[in-house]
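STRUCTURE:
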């Protein structure tokens, strides 16, 4: 009686070696070729023909391989080829140039083979390693091209079978040379009858552990319950091939996302088995998921910014109307209480839109002179409450005060975000050090900033750190190491934007296991004078400084906002001309030379507020102007000539803006 192994060997012997070799030769995406000692091409599979851009084997048979090698690599390739033909097995890299001029970097595993006449030749398995030498997008494109070529080559199975005459030894070398793909054969009922090194690497099983077993062992339990393995074989048998993706299970129980190709093998019209190729594409799938998340976040950002702009216009109309209404209501406590509640609700809505604009990176920076040690001390209590008991904070400040000019609220938020990131990098607790130092930067400094005195605000942790590849991308928008759905990837990019808008720079340093340091470099400025502080605190303008009445051109494409601005200005006693577009505004300005001041929205169709102001200044260079907007779209170079009014604004804020832009009116005679 035959024992189990002998039975399996006997069953495996039923498979025609030529059929098996032909199937693998045609379906393998690597280039398989036999090169004679004199360099002529003796054999090449469809993948190789595609790589060298040959239309068919007949068009290239017997050609010199040497002519396909990049000129600078030919000497090295020839040296390696001779060594192989003398009996060595080698692996090396070189570039090829296809018949149509395409250059490809190749990695080759070559072994010596002997033909019937006893002549030594080179049997080589070459793979295109362009994807390994390029980053994310190029890799995805190459994978798509590779998958297309695999499907295309399968259609050439019959013609490839006629050309393939490799021996069983050559088949073994071929299969073992492919480690990025699990290549194995199945009997018609799904039993595994062969196993390559790539299958061992990907799935974790040795050949003696799986040969003879049903390939269902690689499927998740829920897929086996749904009969997916055998359904796939039936589909491949009916259609000739099946390509699919799904979860597969390794020997250790871990799962990976697999791309699977099953080709049915027929001999004399009878199904004799299946050739199965499995590829682990878990990383590619994760990359695609991150891309979808980034696209989703960008869509959210765009929507949020647009929605905040529209809400600002609505709140502008509501707040202005409520403010004027309060002046005209009778002194009824109940009515005034209801009105005050409405005003508070509108103000809360305005605060919400500001947060929305900050998320969308369209918020104006409200810069002021800030003393860094004081700002950090102010936010330290909030950081300690947010970080939890497992994390301690150390503060290190110089003896003298250091002042910078930035948005203190945004800087406090940045510090809190950096501290939370540091905490997340220390799951078992640790220390966060926040320090400030002064440094004189020269032209050769690593930051690349202009020469001068700078402050360096550094946040360091004792966490897991980052490798070089992660560190290089850490400040990129939407890049995160927290996994899909657990982080937007906007934190460091927003800090980077804050530093850049404040005239500085964000610098990162990190080593695996050594923690991370985030440095915010900002130019040092003189401390504010008492008079400047007093002016900043008052923040108002006495309307009595103006003439009794001025003529104002108000421009806004939103009819509700325009009506509200006109009402507030008229309530202040001014003459107002309203225009619903920049075109109407220019016509009104040309028709009314007595216009003293222009207040315009920024975001308008056809012509923006700044473009309108340029056109008006061309007509009257000294014209006082106010730009009303909720966006941070104030270009460099115009800050001294245009007063900015952030939407939504109150009548008092409007009065202050008029005063800031119209000081010349105080010396002009009243109408």
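SEQUENCE:
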């Amino acid at each position: 009686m035959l024992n189990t192994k002998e039975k399996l060997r006997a069953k495996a012997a039923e498979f025609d070696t030529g059929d098996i070799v032909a199937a693998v030769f045609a379906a393998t995406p690597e280039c398989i070729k036999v090169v004679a000692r004199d360099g002529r091409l003796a054999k090449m599979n469809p993948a190789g023909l595609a790589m060298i851009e040959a239309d068919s084997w007949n068009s290239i048979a017997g050609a010199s391989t040497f002519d396909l090698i990049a000129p600078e690599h030919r000497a090295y390739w020839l040296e390696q080829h001779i060594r192989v033909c003398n009996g060595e097995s080698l692996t090396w890299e070189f570039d090829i140039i296809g018949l149509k001029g395409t250059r490809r970097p190749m990695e080759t595993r070559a072994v010596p083979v002997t033909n019937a006449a006893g002549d030594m030749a080179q049997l080589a398995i070459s793979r295109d390693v362009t994807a390994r030498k390029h980053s994310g997008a190029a890799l995805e494109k190459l994978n798509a091209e590779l998958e297309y070529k695999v499907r295309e080559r399968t259609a050439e199975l019959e013609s490839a079978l006629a050309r393939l005459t490799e021996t069983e030894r050559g088949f073994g070398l071929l299969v073992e040379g492919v480690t990025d793909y699990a290549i194995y054969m199945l009997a018609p009922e799904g039993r595994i009858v062969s196993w390559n090194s790539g299958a061992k690497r990907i799935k974790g099983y040795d050949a003696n552990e799986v040969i003879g077993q049903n390939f269902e062992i690689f499927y998740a339990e829920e897929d086996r319950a749904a009969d997916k393995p055998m359904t796939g074989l039936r589909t491949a048998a009916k259609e000739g091939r099946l390509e699919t993706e799904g979860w597969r299970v390794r020997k250790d129980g871990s799962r990976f996302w697999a791309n699977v190709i099953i080709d049915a093998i027929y001999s004399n019209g009878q199904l004799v088995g299946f050739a199965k190729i499995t590829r682990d594409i878990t990383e590619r799938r994760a990359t695609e998921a991150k891309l979808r998340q980034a696209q989703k976040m960008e869509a959210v950002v765009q929507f949020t910014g647009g929605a905040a702009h529209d809400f600002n216009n609505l709140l502008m109309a509501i707040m202005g109307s409520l403010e004027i209404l309060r002046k005209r209501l009778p002194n009824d406590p109940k009515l005034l209480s209801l009105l005050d509640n409405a005003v508070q609700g509108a103000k809360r809505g305005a605060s919400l839109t500001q947060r929305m604009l900050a998320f969308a990176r369209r918020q104006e920076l409200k810069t002021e002179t800030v003393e860094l040690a004081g700002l950090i001390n102010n936010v330290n209590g909030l950081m300690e409450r947010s970080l939890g008991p497992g994390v301690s904070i150390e503060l290190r400040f110089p003896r003298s005060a250091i002042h910078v000019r930035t948005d203190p609220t945004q800087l406090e938020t940045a510090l809190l975000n950096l501290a939370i990131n540091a905490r997340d990098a220390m799951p078992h607790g640790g220390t966060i050090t926040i320090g400030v130092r002064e440094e004189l930067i020269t032209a050769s400094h690593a930051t690349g900033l202009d020469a001068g005195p700078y402050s360096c605000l550094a946040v360091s942790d004792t966490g897991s750190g980052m490798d070089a590849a992660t560190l290089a991308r850490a400040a990129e928008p939407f890049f995160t190491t927290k996994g899909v759905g657990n982080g937007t990837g906007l934190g460091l990019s927003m800090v980077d934007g804050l530093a850049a808008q404040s005239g500085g720079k964000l610098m990162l340093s990190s080593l695996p296991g050594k923690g991370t340091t985030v440095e915010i470099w900002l130019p040092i400025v003189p401390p504010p004078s008492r008079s400047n502080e007093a002016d900043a605190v008052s923040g108002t303008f006495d309307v009595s400084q103006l003439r009794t009445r001025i003529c104002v051109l108000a421009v806004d494409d939103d009819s509700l906002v325009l009506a509200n601005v006109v009402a507030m200005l008229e309530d202040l006693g001014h003459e107002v001309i309203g225009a619903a577009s920049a075109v109407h505004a220019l016509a009104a300005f040309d028709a009314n030379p007595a216009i003293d001041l222009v207040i315009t929205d920024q975001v308008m169709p056809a012509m923006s507020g700044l473009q309108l102001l340029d056109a008006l200044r061309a007509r009257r260079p000294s014209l006082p102007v106010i730009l009303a907007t909720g966006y941070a779209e104030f270009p460099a170079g115009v800050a001294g000539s245009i007063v900015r009014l952030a939407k939504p604004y109150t009548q008092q804020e409007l009065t202050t803006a008029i005063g800031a832009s119209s000081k010349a009116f105080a010396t002009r005679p009243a109408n």
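REMARK: Residues 157-170, 484-490, 531-547, 664-671 have pLDDT under 50 and may be disordered.
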